[in-house]
C-alpha cells in the first residue's frame, strides 16, 4: 500500500533530523564540492611552472644569442654573419623546431627568433612562442604565450691599447724559419697585416667613441736588443754629459817632432868667388847652392844643430852675378858673390800611436785611464765624428777614445792621416741601474711608475752602437728598432706607414719590450701626462698585446739596453755566468715586469707567432689569464688572433 504524501514527508523529516545529528561522511560532500576549483589551482600551477621554466631557458638562449652576435660584429651593423652566429647560439641553448632544428623543449610551438640592429651598434634578439597547457585546457586555456627581448652591445669606455711587437732578426723569416729577407711572406710582413686587421676591427668602435667625446688610442713598442724611446723622454731623464762604453781606444806614446820654421834672415855674410875672374851664370848658381864645380869645393855645412827636439838651423845663399860695380859685369862670365840667409827651426814634441791599427779594446772610462765618451752632441741630434784609424799625432801623451782622436789628431802640415765616420743617434737607450737578484720590483729599471732623479743611476743613457766593441776586438750584436710611439689616436694611413717601416734585426729581449710597454701605459710614471685615469669624466681601460716569434735569447756578447753583459755585469752579478744563466736572469726580469704591469690594472694578451714558439710557462704566465695566451702558427692565424682580441677589448655586456 502506498504511503500517503503526509507519511512520506514525516519520514523525510525524521531522516533529516538523524542526518543533522550524525556528521559522519561530510568530507565526501566537501571534496565533491571543491574538486573543480582544486583542479584549476593545481593545473594552473603545473602549467605556469612549465611556462616559467620555458621563459627562463628562452631568456638564457636570447642572452647568449645577443652576446654571440655582438662578438661576431665587425662593421657595426647586423649582417648575415652576425645573424647566423646569433641564431646558432640561440638554437644551441633552445631548439626552435624550425627546419633543421630539433624539437623545442616543454612542447613549445616552433618559432623563429629575430635578430636586428639596435642603437649604438647593439644586437637585438626577440622571440615569441606558446607553451601548451595540460589541466588548464579544461577551463578553456589551451596555451600560455612566452616572449623574450634582449640586446647586447660593446660597452666601451676610453680605451688604450699598447702593442709590444717583436722586431728581432728572425722576423725576417717565414713562419717555418726559412729566411725571406723581410719579404712579403716573412713574419714581419704578416705582423704588419695583423696590426692593421686589429685597427680595422676596432675602427667602428673608435668612431663611436669619438662621437661621444671619448677616444681609442694605440701605442707601439717595437723591441729587439733595445728599444727606441730616448727622443720620447722628457728633459732631465737622459744623461747628457758623459758615459762609459765598451769601446776601443789608442795609446799615443811614440814621440814625433813637429818643426816650426822661422823666416829666413840675412846674417850679413857675403862671400865672393874669384872676384876678379868671371864665371858662368850656372856656376854662380851652384856657388850659391853650395854645390861643387870646377874650381870650387864647399867649405862649410848647410845645416846644423839638433837633433830634435833641440833647434836646428839651415842657411841658404842668394847669388849675385855681375852686380853693379863688380870687377867683371859683362859677357858670358861675370863676377859672382853670394849673401847668406839663416833659417832656425824649433820643434814641438807630439805623440803618435805605434801604428794605424794600434787599438786597445776596453771600456772608455776614467778607471781605465781614458776619458769616457762625451754624449752631449750625440743626444742633441748632431753628427759626431769618430776615428776609424789612429793616424796623426796628439799634442799630449795619453790614451784617447775614438771621439777624441777624430777631434784632436793632426800632423805638421795640419792635415791628418785619419779616416773617420759620422755617427748620429737613432734614439735607443741603455736602461737605468738594475738589480742582480730578481724578482725585485725596487730595481730602478723596473720602476715603471716612478721618474728618474738627479742620480745618474736612475737616468737613461744613449745607446751608441758605432763605438761599441768587444774586449776581444770583435763587434757585438747590435740593433736599434724603429722609434716607439706614445699613446695617440691614429688614422689608418698613418698607422699603415708606421708598421711598413718596421725592420727585423737583433736578438729577443722581451723583458725590455714589456718594461717599455708598461712604462708607456703607467698613470703615474714618466708619461703620466699621457695617461689620465679618466678622460671626459669616463674611465680608461688599458690593454697590452705582446707578440713574439721566439723565446728570450740573450748572449754575453750582445750590446743590449744593459750594455755588453760579459763586461758590464749589470744583470748577472760581478762575473759573467754564461749565456744560459744570463738568459734565465732575463726570464726572471720578464716575469717580474709582467706581474708589475698586471698590478697596474692592465689586461695582457700574449701571442706566440710561428712554428718555432709555443706557449711555455713564461709566456702563459705573462698573460692575464690562460685564455689570453695563444699561439699563431702562421700569418692567417695571427691575423685572426688580432681580430679576436679586437672583439674582446672592452666589456661586452647585455643592455636588456
Structural class: alpha+beta
Please identify which CATH superfamily of the largest domain we are dealing with.
von Willebrand factor, type A domain
How many helical elements? 13
Per DSSP, what share of the residues sits in E-state strands of 2 or more residues?
15-25%
Could you name the CATH topology of the largest domain? Rossmann fold
Mean model confidence by pLDDT:
88
Q: Determine Rg (CA atoms, Å).
A: 48 Å
Shape: rod-shaped
The rounded distance between the terminal residues' Cα atoms is: 84 Å
Number of strands: 28
From the 3D coordinates, which CATH architecture of the largest domain would you assign?
A: 3-Layer(aba) Sandwich
Low-confidence blocks of residues: 1-5, 32-36, 38-44
Largest sheet: 7 strands, mixed
Write down the domain tally: 4
CATH class descriptor of the largest domain: Alpha Beta
Characterize the quaternary organization of these chains: single chain
**Helix content range:** 25-40%
Account of the protein in words:
It is a single chain. The chain has 656 residues and is α+β, with helices and mostly antiparallel strands. It has four domains: 27-153, no CATH class; 158-240 and 428-650, Rossmann fold, CATH 3.40.50; 249-253 and 353-374 and 384-423, no CATH class; 257-352, no CATH class. It is built from 13 helices and 28 strands. The strands form eight sheets. Strands 4, 5, 21, 22, 23, 26 and 27 form a seven-stranded mixed sheet that branches. A hairpin with a 6-residue loop joins strand 10 and strand 11 (312-321). Helix 2 (26-72) runs antiparallel to helix 3 (80-93), helix 4 (187-211) runs parallel beside helix 13 and helix 9 (510-521) runs parallel beside helix 11 (579-599).
Amino acid at each position: 500500500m502506498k504511503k500517503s504524501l503526509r507519511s512520506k514527508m514525516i519520514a523525510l523529516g525524521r531522516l533529516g533530523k538523524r542526518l543533522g545529528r550524525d556528521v559522519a561522511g561530510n568530507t565526501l560532500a566537501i571534496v565533491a564540492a571543491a574538486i573543480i576549483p582544486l583542479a584549476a589551482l593545481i593545473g594552473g600551477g603545473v602549467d605556469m611552472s612549465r611556462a616559467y621554466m620555458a621563459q627562463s631557458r628562452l631568456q638564457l638562449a636570447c642572452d647568449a644569442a645577443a652576446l654571440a652576435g655582438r662578438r661576431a660584429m665587425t662593421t657595426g651593423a647586423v649582417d648575415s654573419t652576425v645573424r647566423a652566429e646569433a641564431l646558432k647560439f640561440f638554437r644551441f641553448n633552445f631548439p626552435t623546431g624550425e627546419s633543421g632544428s630539433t624539437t623545442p623543449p616543454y612542447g613549445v610551438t616552433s618559432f623563429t627568433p629575430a635578430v636586428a640592429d639596435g642603437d649604438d651598434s647593439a644586437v637585438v634578439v626577440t622571440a615569441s612562442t606558446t607553451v601548451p597547457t595540460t589541466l588548464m585546457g579544461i577551463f578553456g586555456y589551451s596555451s600560455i604565450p612566452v616572449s623574450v627581448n634582449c640586446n647586447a652591445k660593446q660597452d666601451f669606455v676610453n680605451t688604450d691599447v699598447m702593442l709590444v711587437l717583436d722586431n728581432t732578426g728572425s722576423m725576417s723569416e717565414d713562419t717555418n724559419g726559412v729566411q725571406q729577407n723581410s719579404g712579403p711572406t716573412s713574419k714581419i710582413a704578416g705582423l704588419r697585416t695583423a696590426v692593421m686587421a686589429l685597427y680595422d676591427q676596432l675602427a667602428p668602435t673608435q668612431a663611436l667613441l669619438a662621437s661621444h667625446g671619448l677616444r681609442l688610442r694605440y701605442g707601439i713598442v717595437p723591441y729587439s736588443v733595445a728599444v727606441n724611446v730616448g727622443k720620447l723622454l722628457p728633459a732631465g731623464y737622459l744623461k747628457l754629459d758623459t758615459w762609459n762604453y765598451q769601446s776601443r781606444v789608442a795609446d799615443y806614446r811614440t814621440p814625433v817632432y813637429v818643426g816650426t820654421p822661422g823666416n829666413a834672415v840675412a846674417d850679413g855674410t857675403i862671400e865672393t868667388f874669384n872676384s876678379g875672374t868671371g864665371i858662368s851664370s850656372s856656376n854662380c848658381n851652384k856657388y850659391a847652392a853650395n854645390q861643387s864645380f870646377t874650381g870650387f869645393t864647399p867649405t862649410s855645412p848647410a845645416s846644423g844643430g839638433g837633433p830634435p827636439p833641440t833647434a836646428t838651423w839651415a842657411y841658404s845663399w842668394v847669388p849675385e852675378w855681375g852686380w853693379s860695380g863688380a870687377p867683371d859685369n859683362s859677357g858670358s862670365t861675370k863676377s859672382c858673390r853670394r849673401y847668406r840667409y839663416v833659417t832656425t827651426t824649433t820643434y814641438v814634441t807630439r805623440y803618435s800611436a805605434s801604428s794605424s791599427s794600434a787599438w786597445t779594446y776596453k771600456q772608455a772610462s776614467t778607471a781605465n785611464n781614458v776619458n769616457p765618451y762625451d754624449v752631449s752632441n750625440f743626444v742633441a741630434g748632431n753628427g759626431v765624428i769618430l776615428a776609424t784609424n789612429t793616424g796623426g799625432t796628439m799634442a799630449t801623451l795619453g790614451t784617447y777614445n775614438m771621439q777624441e782622436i777624430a777631434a784632436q789628431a793632426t800632423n805638421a802640415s795640419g792635415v791628418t792621416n785619419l779616416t773617420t765616420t759620422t755617427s748620429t743617434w737613432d734614439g735607443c737607450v741603455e736602461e737605468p741601474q738594475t738589480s742582480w737578484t730578481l724578482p725585485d720590483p725596487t730595481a730602478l729599471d723596473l720602476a715603471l711608475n716612478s721618474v728618474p732623479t738627479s742620480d745618474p743611476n736612475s737616468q737613461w743613457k744613449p745607446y751608441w752602437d758605432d763605438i761599441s766593441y768587444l774586449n776581444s776586438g770583435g763587434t757585438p750584436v747590435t740593433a736599434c728598432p724603429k722609434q716607439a710611439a706614445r699613446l695617440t689616436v691614429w688614422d689608418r694611413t698613418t698607422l699603415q706607414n708606421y708598421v711598413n717601416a718596421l725592420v727585423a734585426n737583433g736578438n729577443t729581449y722581451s723583458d725590455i719590450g714589456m718594461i717599455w710597454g708598461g712604462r708607456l701605459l703607467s698613470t703615474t710614471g714618466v708619461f703620466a701626462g699621457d695617461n689620465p685615469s679618466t678622460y671626459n669624466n669616463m674611465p680608461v681601460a688599458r690593454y697590452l698585446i705582446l707578440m713574439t716569434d721566439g723565446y728570450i735569447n740573450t748572449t754575453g756578447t750582445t750590446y743590449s739596453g744593459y750594455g755588453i753583459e760579459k763586461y758590464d755585469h749589470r744583470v748577472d752579478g760581478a762575473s759573467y755566468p754564461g749565456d744560459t744563466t744570463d738568459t734565465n736572469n732575463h726570464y726572471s726580469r720578464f716575469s717580474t715586469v709582467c706581474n708589475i704591469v698586471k698590478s697596474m690594472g692592465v689586461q695582457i694578451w700574449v701571442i706566440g707567432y710561428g712554428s718555432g714558439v709555443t706557449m711555455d710557462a713564461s709566456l702563459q704566465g705573462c698573460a692575464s689569464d690562460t685564455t689570453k695566451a695563444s699561439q699563431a702558427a702562421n700569418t692567417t692565424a695571427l691575423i685572426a688572433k688580432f681580430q679576436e682580441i679586437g672583439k674582446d677589448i672592452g666589456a661586452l655586456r647585455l643592455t636588456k
